[in-house]
Design a protein that fits this description.
It is a single chain. This protein is of the alpha/beta class. It has a single domain, classed as Leucine Aminopeptidase, subunit E, domain 1 (3-Layer(aba) Sandwich). It contains seven helices and nine strands. Helix 3 crosses helix 7. The longest helix is centred in the C-terminal third of the chain and has 21 residues. The two termini are about 30 Å apart.
């Protein structure tokens, strides 16, 4: 196994070309605000809402996957981040586990690349510096089978300043994504290649679901999360 290439990007996550995009989800997989709302709109709110309704639920620290629908990405990986309480409820490890769950899912889906927002630093209440450190270090230490690159996409100036303060360079992307267009009511012509591609996506999603549904795999991910967080706490 080898480590993946990690790159910090400042801009809109919808502008980053990747095979999968990570959506910060709630346990009921309902559309939220911020990055969640942007991805729902760009993917196609009706289709994505229905796909999430079929799945129904995701536990904190874990991940589920849906097709990307109208996104340029093939997949949307939904991961639920634990809210910050007081630092005594395994918040650091659970945040790390959310990244590991999404990274493992992207690897199982045979994605070459995956784009993450900075998880936990908004409404979930994590300290921005620590949220960035957990994201960056977890990605850097992830050992992959297929996955080649992970993009950590930060939107605001504060997060970009955190990266710069740690000596980490970042790429600037345009802030404005291509606006979502409501689909035509006309029934589109579906090519045989499109059918094959959708079947491949469905099979990959089923494989990822099987992996994430096994308790032993989740236990392994959580154990790795504890090790990574211990290393992060040792950093100067």
């Amino acid at each position: 196994m080898r480590n993946i290439h990690v790159e910090v990007v400042r801009g809109n996550i919808l502008n980053v070309l990747s095979d999968a995009v990570v959506l910060p989800a709630n346990r009921g997989l309902r559309e939220g605000s911020g990055t969640s709302a942007a991805i729902f709109q760009a993917a196609g709110r009706k289709q994505l809402t229905e796909a999430c309704r079929e799945i129904g639920f995701c536990e904190e620290g874990k991940a589920v996957v849906t097709p990307g629908f109208a996104l340029r990405a093939d997949y949307i990986i939904h991961t639920v981040v634990t809210r910050w309480v007081d630092g005594q409820h395994n918040e650091y490890e659970r945040l790390c586990a959310s990244y590991l769950a999404a990274l493992n899912t992207a690897d199982i889906l045979r994605c070459a690349s995956v784009a993450f927002p900075l998880l936990g630093a908004g409404n979930n209440g994590y300290d921005l510096n620590l949220a960035f450190e957990i994201a960056y270090q977890t990605m850097q230490q992830f050992e992959r089978q297929v996955l080649e690159a992970a993009y950590l996409v930060v939107f605001g100036a504060r997060a970009a300043k955190v990266a710069a303060g740690k000596g980490i360079s970042y790429v600037e992307f345009p802030e404005t994504a291509v606006p979502y267009q409501e689909p035509s009511h006309e029934r589109p012509q579906v090519s045989p290649d499109a059918v094959k591609r959708r079947n491949r996506i469905d099979q990959a999603i089923a494989q990822a679901g099987t992996f994430l549904g096994k308790k032993e795999n989740w236990d392994d991910m959580l154990e790795v999360a504890f090790k990574i967080v211990r290393l992060i706490k040792m950093l100067p």
